[in-house]
Automatic annotation (TrEMBL):
Name this polypeptide is given: Uncharacterized protein
SUPFAM superfamilies to which the protein is assigned, alphabetical: C2 domain (Calcium/lipid-binding domain, CaLB)
InterPro entries registered for this protein in UniProt: C2_dom, C2_domain_sf, Ingression_C2_domain
Pfam families in alphabetical order: C2
Amino acid sequence: MALEAGVMSVTMEFGKDLKDGDWFGKQDPYCIIRIGGQTFRTRTAVDGGRNPVWNETFRFNVINENNVDVEIKDEDVGKDDLIGTCTFSLAKARESGSDRIQAPVVSKKSRKQRGFLSIALSWEPNKALKSNDNAAAAHAPHHQQQHYQHPPPMAYAAAPPPAYYAAPPAPAYYAAPPPAVAYYAAAAYPPAPMAAYPPGAYPPQPYPGAVPVPGHR
């Protein structure tokens, strides 16, 4: 039965009793780790000698690979010397989720074991990775969860101009004035003085009780 693909975390902890090819001083070991077509390199343990310490973790995408190849080298000026190699399996870690290995280091020339590497493995299948991502997304803040494309803006009909833009109706005092009213009635003026009557003519007699007008006979 094929194992599920996932991510294998490989922690290179330390080396113990490695071969030391330097005559003077201590060697400076580092490791090159390969799984399939993926390769990582640890930092150099300066003056690590036969017991270098790295404590570095590397994550490999694993599909069908089950073996890990490691080269241990001594960093020198010019060409780096090969200290030894080791190979170990990922099968137990992929089945149980984790594993700790003391992988024997073999000398290239003599093919004899010269010390070992302490390595910790941790396995995360793709299903677990997806569920962890979904759980993280569910607990993420609201503004981080939504990555939707904003809808296009709504098209609004042109609003009519406000009422105050229209010309106000003419007030009442702008209307044409009403026709002139005769405020004064024709003045009643007293009759003009009576002209002298020709001889023989008699003025009209006043009504009884009338008061004679001065100047008239």
